[in-house]
Structure to design on (466 residues):
């Protein structure tokens, strides 16, 4: 049975099972998550949630990231608020095969629990983080793409379960307890795609973290759920992906139930599609917006640099034509975004700021920029046409100048894709750019501590720097 199989895999997983590249990947994932959470800590979505919920805070045990001084709140609300902050700029990681932002729900829950309980080494923490990420991504693959097409936000629907599994592993729960935690998390399905472009999109991974944390704690104290929560007729997989034919087979395949190779170990009975680590297919964003429009941003920034080098101005542009993967228009097709959050789902805004400013940072998604007459003027010149033959990280951009000249750029693979991953140096710059305005002189110390988190004797000491 899928639920029990997954629970047993989680229970049996050891840090020594990880190849070196998995260790590197999970450190990079947590480092990137922490930077995004600190960077989003002052956003209205985070501060409104904090102010609204503060009357309900319990015993102060866990850090609220990115605050002046050290602000502690209860673990449940820390998981929620840090999860919101980590996603609000849409700058967090992406598992490209499912578009899940995997670290947010799991890390937000684990960070809160690690401080609340205390005494967990860096290796114990990273082990739990990998367990949660692998599980949520495998479950996401099992119901992809029908689940997403129905309108579910897969980051939170799968993330609740990933968070529950991560916390369960950190607390060294039995396989039976883990199975019940999976069920308690599975029944708390959260997240609708209709919310994209609003504060509520960021609420999704925060709520998933909170739901998963609650599920694990309840199960650790004997709270029960269905032990077939994933695979049953009225269980998670069939309910959230009822348009997918033979979802039981897909679930069994992606959870490695024939070969027991969920953790990437190829068994003697042959290889399978699950013979890989999903965390190695995780990617990191150089731009704070929907990842599918990153190829257009890359191209527009390069064309902006080209124009500047030749003394050309944006007011000399007649039209901009782009060819993009069909997902670009489905996910980021907002032609007239009203504010910065909606602009994150506009390939037209993304191209406009790339051409106008030659960069694309959180500043380019301020409301004032999204509403700028100059940005809107360029945005209105941009046309986007879907081309099925293109890869998801590929785009063609053609600028027609008023004098009839054309400037062209073909982006084969965007920066941040699996083929052109961000380097550690680039991730560090991204972290510093987000965190220095908030952490000030403590930024470098915090960065170094996060890169070395696997060596920590108690990760709670690292969390206190955030």
């Amino acid at each position: 049975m899928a639920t029990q199989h997954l629970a047993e895999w989680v229970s049996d997983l050891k840090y020594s099972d990880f190849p070196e590249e998995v260790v590197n990947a999970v450190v990079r994932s947590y480092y990137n998550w922490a930077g995004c959470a600190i960077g989003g800590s002052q956003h209205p979505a985070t501060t409104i949630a904090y102010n609204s919920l503060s009357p309900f805070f319990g015993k102060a045990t866990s850090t609220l990231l990115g605050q002046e001084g050290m602000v502690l709140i209860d673990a449940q609300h820390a998981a929620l608020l840090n999860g919101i902050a980590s996603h609000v700029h849409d700058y967090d990681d992406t598992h490209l095969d499912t578009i899940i932002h995997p670290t947010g729900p799991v890390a937000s829950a684990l960070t809160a629990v690690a401080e609340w309980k205390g005494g967990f080494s860096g290796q114990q923490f990273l082990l739990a983080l990998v367990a949660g990420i692998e599980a949520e991504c495998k479950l996401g693959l099992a119901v992809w793409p029908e689940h997403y097409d129905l309108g579910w936000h897969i980051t939170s629907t799968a993330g609740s379960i990933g968070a529950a599994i991560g916390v369960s592993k950190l607390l060294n729960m039995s396989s039976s307890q883990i199975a019940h935690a999976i069920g308690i998390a599975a029944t708390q399905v959260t997240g609708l795609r209709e919310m994209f472009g609003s504060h509520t999109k960021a609420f999704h991974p925060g709520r998933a973290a909170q739901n998963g944390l609650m599920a694990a704690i309840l199960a650790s104290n004997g709270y029960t759920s269905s032990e077939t929560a994933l695979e049953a007729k009225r269980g998670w997989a069939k309910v959230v992906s009822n348009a997918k034919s033979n979802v039981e087979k897909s679930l069994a395949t992606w959870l490695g139930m024939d070969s027991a190779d969920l953790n990437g170990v190829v068994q003697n009975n042959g290889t399978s599609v699950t013979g890989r680590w999903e965390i190695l297919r995780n990617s990191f964003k150089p731009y704070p917006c929907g990842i599918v429009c990153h190829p257009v941003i890359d191209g527009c920034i390069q064309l902006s640099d080209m124009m500047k080098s030749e003394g050309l101005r944006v007011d000399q542009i007649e039209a901009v034509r782009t060819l993009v993967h069909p997902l670009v228009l489905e996910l980021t097709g907002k032609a007239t975004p009203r504010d910065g959050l909606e602009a994150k789902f506009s390939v037209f805004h993304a191209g406009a700021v790339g051409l106008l400013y030659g960069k694309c940072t959180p500043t380019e998604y301020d409301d004032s920029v999204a509403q700028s007459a100059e940005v809107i003027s360029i945005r209105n010149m941009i046309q986007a046409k879907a081309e099925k033959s293109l890869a998801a990280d590929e785009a063609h951009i053609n600028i027609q100048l008023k004098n009839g000249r054309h400037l062209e750029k073909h982006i084969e693979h965007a920066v941040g894709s699996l083929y052109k991953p961000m380097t550690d140096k680039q991730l560090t710059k991204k972290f510093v750019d987000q965190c220095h305005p908030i952490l000030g002189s403590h930024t470098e110390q915090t960065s170094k501590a996060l890169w070395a988190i696997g060596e920590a004797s108690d990760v709670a000491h690292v969390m206190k720097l955030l």
